[in-house]
User: What shape does this take?
Amino acid sequence: NAGVTQTPKFQVLKTGQSMTLQCAQDMNHEYMSWYRQDPGMGLRLIHYSVGAGITDQGEVPNGYNVSRSTTEDFPLRLLSAAPSQTSVYFCASSYSPQSGSYEQYFGPGTRLTVT
Amino acid sequence: DAKTTQPNSMESNEEEPVHLPCNHSTISGTDYIHWYRQLPSQGPEYVIHGLTSNVNNRMASLAIAEDRKSSTLILHRATLRDAAVYYCILSRGGSQGNLIFGKGTKLSVKP
Assistant: This one.
């Protein structure tokens, strides 16, 4: 298994540009999520999905869109990039975590800089 | 979501045991205690989790206080590769899997 993969690894955008960060997992996990990590900080949840066709907002959703058309993929779209979105973005997945007992698998991250 | 409190940083010597503390005085009965770690320039990595009883796996042990208001992650023999930020996180059953990360404890390991 490749686990959780993210592309690209690095990206530089100009203010106002849009782009999509890709996330895929091959473990047939129902739950997927996106986090951002700013320098010296912990991770903050942006959006999450508990299954294909179902998404919901996390702690910091403004400026980002998600959709989940397949179990494997969970892309994150930046609608109009702003310097405040400069961060490292992590995607994660797990089996359905409804019991609270689960292990989340994280991707290697995408480092985004907005100038 | 219930909050956890961890020291900002800790130091250890290589090949010695490390005890990383976490306080979670507002934990509820259905909250699991999770530990993740993040090595430099990498995504977080699952370490261990538990509910009430102490847990062991190949990476570490988790000791949970009887009243569940605190827990300790134990690395039995620290290696240089264990230098990372360690996060103690509570997850609630039915919370749809959302992990709330704090700033964690930065562990340094000296040779």
In short: Chain A has a mean pLDDT of 93. Residues 38 and 87 of chain A are 5 Å apart (CA to CA). DSSP finds no helices and eleven strands in chain A.
